[in-house]
Recover the amino acids of this structure.
C-alpha cells in the first residue's frame, strides 16, 4: 500500500466552511422549514486532501483562505490530519470560502450557494513560482473552482512534468472549464449532470446511458472515467474495459462530500496499481461511508474501514 514518505499527491483548489441545513420534512419553497443546521469544513480540494490523508497517502494542499477564524480552523485541521498545507495562501483581509447547502429530508442536496472567490488568489504567477511542487509530485488533483487562466497554468505545468492529472468538475456551472483538457485527464468522476456538460449531451438517466457517457469521455481523451448515478451505482470506462458497480444502500445522513470521497479512494487505488473494477468499488465504499457521516469528510475513514465497507 501507499508509502506515506513517497512523492506527494498535489491537490489544488478550494477550501471553505460548509453550512448545511437538512429539512425535517418535505421542503416548502418561499418559507422557513424546520430542520437541523450544521457546520463542517469543506471545499472540493480540501475534502480530497483530507480523504487521501486518512487513507495514508502523502498529500500536499495548495488552497487559499482568509486570515479569519474559518481559515485558521481549516489550516489547523488539515495539518492535524497529516496534510502539508505549506504552499497554501492566507489572504490578508480575505474572506474564507463558504458553501451553503439545503438538503431535503432524505439528506440529498436540493440547492446550494457557494462563495469561493478567494481561490482567485491562486494565480498563474503564484503557481509558476512554485513549479517545483509539480516536479516533486506523483499525481495532481485540481477542482474547477480555479480561474481559466490558473487551470491553463496547472495543465501546462503538469504536462511539462509528465504528471498524471485527476480533475473534479465541481458543479455543472464550472465543469466546462475542464473541456479543453480532457485529453490530459488520467481520471475524472463526474455526476451525470456534470458529465453531460463535459460531453455536450443529455444527462444519463439509466445505467446503460451512464456507461455510454463514460465511454464517450474516454473517446474524448480521458484515461479513466467514472459516472456516479446516486442509488443506481457508478459506471466506469477505460480504453480497455468498462462496467457497472452497484451502489451500497444505506440510510443517508448527508450526501455532501460523497463524490469527493469516491474520487479520493479511486486515486488511492490508482496509486497502488489496483485493478479498475476494484478501484471503482473502493470509491463506492468510500462514498458510502461518507453518506453515513454528518461531516463532509467522514472522520472515521481509514484503510481498515474502507476495506471493511467493501466486504460488507
Amino acid at each position: 500500500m501507499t508509502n506515506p514518505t513517497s512523492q506527494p499527491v498535489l491537490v489544488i483548489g478550494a477550501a471553505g466552511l460548509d453550512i448545511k441545513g437538512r429539512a425535517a420534512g418535505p421542503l416548502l419553497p418561499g418559507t422557513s422549514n424546520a430542520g437541523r443546521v450544521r457546520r463542517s469544513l469543506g471545499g472540493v480540494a480540501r475534502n480530497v486532501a483530507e480523504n487521501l490523508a486518512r487513507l495514508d497517502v502523502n498529500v500536499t494542499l495548495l488552497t487559499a483562505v482568509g486570515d479569519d477564524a474559518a481559515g485558521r480552523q481549516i489550516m489547523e485541521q488539515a495539518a492535524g490530519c497529516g496534510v502539508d498545507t505549506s504552499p497554501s495562501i492566507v489572504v490578508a483581509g480575505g474572506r474564507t470560502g463558504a458553501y451553503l447547502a439545503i438538503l431535503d429530508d432524505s439528506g440529498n442536496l436540493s440547492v446550494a450557494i457557494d462563495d469561493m472567490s478567494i481561490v482567485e488568489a491562486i494565480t498563474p504567477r503564484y503557481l509558476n513560482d512554485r513549479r517545483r511542487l509539480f516536479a516533486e509530485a506523483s499525481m495532481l488533483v485540481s477542482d474547477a473552482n480555479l480561474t481559466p487562466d490558473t487551470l491553463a497554468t496547472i495543465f501546462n505545468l503538469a504536462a511539462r512534468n509528465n504528471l498524471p492529472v485527476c480533475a473534479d468538475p465541481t458543479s455543472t456551472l464550472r465543469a466546462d472549464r475542464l473541456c479543453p483538457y480532457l485529453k490530459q485527464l488520467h481520471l475524472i468522476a463526474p455526476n451525470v449532470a456534470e458529465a453531460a456538460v463535459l460531453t455536450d449531451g443529455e444527462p444519463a438517466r439509466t445505467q446503460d446511458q451512464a456507461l455510454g457517457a463514460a465511454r464517450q469521455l474516454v473517446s474524448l481523451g480521458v484515461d479513466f472515467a467514472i459516472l456516479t448515478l446516486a442509488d443506481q451505482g457508478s459506471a466506469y470506462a477505460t480504453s480497455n474495459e468498462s462496467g457497472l458497480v452497484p451502489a451500497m444502500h444505506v440510510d443517508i445522513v448527508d450526501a455532501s462530500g460523497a463524490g469527493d470521497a469516491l474520487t479520493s479512494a479511486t486515486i488511492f487505488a490508482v496509486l497502488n496499481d489496483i485493478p479498475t473494477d476494484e478501484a471503482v468499488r473502493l470509491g463506492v465504499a468510500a462514498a458510502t461511508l461518507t453518506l453515513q457521516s454528518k461531516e463532509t469528510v467522514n472522520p472515521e475513514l481509514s484503510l481498515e474501514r474502507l476495506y471493511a465497507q467493501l466486504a460488507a
